[in-house]
Amino acid sequence: MSTFGTPKSVALYERAKHVMPAGNTRHTVFRTPHQIYAERGEGCRIIDIDGNSRIDAVGNFTSLLHGYGSEAIKAAAREQLEKGFSFGMATPGEVRLSEILVERLPSVEHVRYCNSGTEAVMNAVKVARAFTGRAKIAKCEGAYHGAYDVVETSQEARPESWGDVDAPNPVPTAAGTPQGVLDDVVIIPFNNVELGEKILGAKGNDLAGVLIDVMPNRAGLVPATPEFLEMLRRVTKEIGALLIFDEVITFRLGYSGAQGRYGINPDVTALGKIIGGGFPIGAVAGRKDVMAVYDPSNGAPKVQHGGTFSANPMSMMAGIAAMEALTSEAFAHLEALGDRFETKITALFEELVTEAQVTGMASLRRIHLNKAELSDFRSTVLAGADGAKKVAALARLLFDEGVIIAANGLVCFSTPMTFGDIDEIIAAFARALPKLSEV
């Protein structure tokens, strides 16, 4: 039973069901028996339309690294708001934000903007195909790269459909996906150096690029091994394919993103979420010669790209403020928050004799209600659907205890959070976990 009253949300949900499928427009925030509607955010907390306050430990799915109270971001947005929302012209903000990204990412020389992480990955795939003249894309089984037919292949594969580990099947996610789309996707097992190299070598002449999220959330938030990434970097060079890092989420792992932590320079990087300061944004970035597929200076470019709101000044200015606030000290604080959470939640699991573990690193962590050895997507799935259902139930219980996490157990931290907030989150877990047996 929820400790929060939500009559206004109940009434609004009744209206919503008349104009949206199931009264919802994002599956990731769908709740039963009804939606809860946010009214405002303060620091690391969300206040709903009934006045209930909860700690936000998912940050609009990792995008709000500075929470809701950054004065620098609000000031930048207000200033741009007075000047204009968007223009059919280039603006100075896109130059400055690009300079920041180029400075932070040694692999990046040129940047191109769009409006979401999905668009960023979609554009990265187009860049790889245009640059190499090849069609096929390789990706890791179970990895989520946005809502685009090619890259969502096998993100929801299951034992009855995924095939042998040495030759994984490309499995459609959306009903009605054309077979031609599946034919252009090569699936490799995450963190398996030997099989990954074998599969990529066999398909090498057809591959435009290899797409990798080094810590894929929906595949368990298990970090890639250095050996696996080093193999991908070496093999892509050997076969003439581009190595594409999806850093839409993992760019928050450090000053130079995940690639900086691992010391691997991809050819193309897809960005989004935190680089917009809370506003819609995406970016595809990479080497100058690769990004030249967009260059219209000498005639029609190999890749056409527009977008009414691409590089819109609101996102650019908020993004500049957000990135400038992401100092080395800010990252150290985020790292400390993540470490404190893992230490305390692990101790709580032991105290309550709960079969559970934590994966991830830095400001990204994920709860699993099992102690199986997790190394890739298949090991995460085979750890049990029952565990996944219990995690979803735990997320609902935590919501009622005043803490918001993702339904799959993802937890992330933001710069306004304190150690006290972490302790409050742990206290909510302590209240919620014993109630799981009642669900």
Automatic annotation (TrEMBL):
**Family membership noted in the UniProt record:** Belongs to the class-III pyridoxal-phosphate-dependent aminotransferase family.
Protein name (Swiss-Prot/TrEMBL)? Aspartate aminotransferase family protein
Pfam families on file: Aminotran_3
MF terms per GO, please? transaminase activity
Query: Where is the organism placed in the taxonomic lineage, from the top?
Result: Bacteria, Pseudomonadati, Pseudomonadota, Alphaproteobacteria, Hyphomicrobiales
Keyword check for Transferase, yes or no: yes
Task: Cite the entry's keywords alphabetically.
Answer: Aminotransferase, Pyridoxal phosphate, Transferase
* Reported cofactor(s): pyridoxal 5'-phosphate
